[in-house]
Design a protein that fits this description.
Blueprint lengths: L3 E12 L2 E13 L4 E5 L6 H8 L7 E6 L2 E2 L5 H11 E5 L10 H6 L10 H11 L15 H13 L5 E5 L7 H18 L2 E5 L11 E6 L2 E2 L1
Parallel strand pairs: 3-8, 3-9, 6-7, 7-8
Antiparallel strand pairs: 1-2, 1-4, 4-5, 9-10
Length: 220
């Protein structure tokens, strides 16, 4: 069973007097342990699709299922909990808090969960992404690639089933981007998660299990 599935998803927005159809009957799925790359030109619907997968936006029509469960049946509290515990987000801009150390930034999403030893998990994740010697560093003392590794570790702190990455190598040079992709490839197997990445970076295709192209809101 797919960990995430979109079935005939349509998403419409109203822009003034105009109705914009960003997604037009999209079918999509991702399995645990695979990386799916979503490509397409600007304005093609990639970000909208990622927002629907991440439960940040609801479809106008169609179904979204997590492990076979239709999310249209979820309450707002259930959606919030699923976003917190089941889905990790990695952004192009990193979004690290400048006054916190690498360890503290990684811990952030689990701060209100007293049932786990979040410090041990954060330290372990930083070790696994090669930042064991940078745990006490604040973002201004880390390179772009190191900041992105912290962001990836932070996205994994709650042991999600799905990792969503929006242009994860967009702010990085090619060599650093390659290192990040190697880390993501290794972690998807170790954590048994599905990774869905939106990108314009051609080198990511070599690391993906599947590549999906979307043009004008339609999967090609």
């Amino acid at each position: 069973m797919s960990v995430i599935e979109l079935a005939n998803v349509v998403k419409r927005y109203r822009s003034g007097e105009e109705v914009v159809e960003a997604l037009k009957g999209v079918d999509f799925h991702a399995e645990r342990g695979e990386m799916v790359l979503v490509t397409g030109p600007s304005g093609s619907g990639k970000s909208t699709m990622l927002n629907v997968i991440g439960l940040l936006d609801s479809p106008t029509e169609g179904a979204v299922r997590l492990d076979g469960r239709p999310v249209t049946d979820f309450s707002e509290d259930e959606l919030t909990e699923e976003r917190r515990s089941g889905i990790g987000f990695v952004f192009q801009a990193f979004h690290l808090l400048p006054m916190l150390t690498a360890t503290e930034n990684v811990e952030l999403p689990s701060m209100w969960d007293t049932s786990v030893d979040r410090r041990d998990r954060a330290v372990d994740l930083l070790d696994r992404v090669g930042l064991g010697d940078r745990r006490t560093h604040t973002p201004d003392r880390l390179s772009g690639g190191q900041q992105q590794r912290v962001a990836i570790a932070r996205a994994l702190i709650n042991e999600p089933d799905i990792l969503l990455a929006d242009e994860p190598t967009g702010n990085l040079d090619q060599e650093t981007g390659r290192t990040i992709l190697e880390e993501m490839t290794r972690l998807k197997a170790e954590e048994n998660i599905a990774i869905v990445a939106v990108t314009h970076d051609d080198q990511m295709a070599a690391y993906a299990d599947r590549v999906v192209e979307i043009v004008d809101g339609v999967i090609q």
